[in-house]
Amino acid sequence: MAARLSSAQDYESLVDQYDTWMFDCDGVLWQGSNPVDGAMDVLQILRHRGKRVIFVTNNASQSRKSYKKKFDKLGLEVHVDEIYGSAYASAVYISTVMKLPKDKKVFVIGMSGIEEELTEEGVSYIGGTDPADNTLEPFSLSNFTLDTSVGAVLCGLDTSINYTKLSKAYQYLTRNPVCEFLATNTDSTYPAAGGTLIGAGSISAPLAFAVGKEPLCIGKPAKTMLDCIQAKVHFDPKKTIMVGDRLNTDILFGQQGGLATLLVLTGITKEIEITGPSPSPIVPDYVTASIGDLRAVGKQ
Ligand SMILES: O=C(O)[C@H](O)[C@H](O)COP(=O)(O)O
Ligand SMILES: [Mg+2]
């Protein structure tokens, strides 16, 4: 049963217990361009209390450098090595785990975040924001030439998804038997300003259906993201807490990594999913309405 936090003492005790705080972004710190009330204050308080703060987002639409600019605009000084996104984790996976040969490239369904992180990791790609692929014209095989150097398809959130992109990815995945099928993350939806939008998982789903197999998911809850963090940051899992809004990504990620977990209700998960009548089998250690609730703790 999750412990529902409510008093200043509850929050004070939570802050005392953990040295490293890993924060999901969409639905925890902000909904789209709207910051969650008090979130930036709480991050400042945690830092003032000597806590390590790390950001772990499945949102692959932006790179770590782009997220740093978003934090700058919100008035929080953040170092790029405090930000871990699924676009970054995917680029690292392709370059250091898959070890995609340098003469091979990735076909991307996704946005600039993926392109920037692949480039940063020295991985070549086609597709993505290429104007030739961002079209509503019918796709014809007579106008398509398979690029035999494509060794992987990487699919992430793409708000300009279309039939051409899906058709090209389908060709690479079915005509090259060794082409890897990767997804930055498989979140079905995500919290945006004013409501909920379909997420990366709902972008790769039609491709998975057509190809007849699921992609390898690199983002939360997969351990790849934690491996990326551990490669750069030393932390003690027993003194680390993961704060998220989605049970089947953030909370499961924390549990599988041996971390404590705090669920907030400012994003995807609604209270009824944890209280019942048919509660989720994924049970966070702690629950609170919003990360802003932690303003109750002092700065001392
Ligand atoms: O890709 C998506 O579906 C969303 O951008 C993703 O779900 C949000 O990422 P978060 O910061 O909540 O991990
Ligand atoms: Mg989230």
Relevant terms:
Rossmann fold, 2 domains, 7-stranded parallel beta sheet, 20% strand, binds magnesium ion, HAD_sf, metal ion binding, metal-binding, magnesium
How many domains make up the 3D coordinates?
2
Radius of gyration: 20 Å
Q: In CATH's first tier, which class of the largest domain applies? A: Alpha Beta
Bound heterogens, unique: 4-phospho-D-erythronate, magnesium ion
Low-confidence stretches: none
Shape: elongated
Number of helices: 10
Distance between the termini: 31 Å
Strand content: 15-25%
Please state how the strands of the largest beta sheet are arranged side by side. 1-16-15-14-2-5-6
Which class do the helix and strand fractions yield?
alpha/beta
Question: Helix-strand pattern, N to C?
Answer: EHEEEHEHEHEHEEHEEEHEHEHEHE
Mean pLDDT over the full residue set: 97
- Helix content bin: 25-40%
Q: How many beta strands in the DSSP annotation?
A: 16
CATH architecture annotation of the largest domain: 3-Layer(aba) Sandwich
Task: Please name the CATH topology of the largest domain.
Answer: Rossmann fold
EC number: 3.1.3.41
Protein name: 4-nitrophenylphosphatase
InterPro entries: HAD-like_sf (IPR036412), HAD-SF_hydro_IIA (IPR006357), HAD_sf (IPR023214), PGP_euk (IPR006349)
GO molecular function, one term: alkaline phosphatase activity
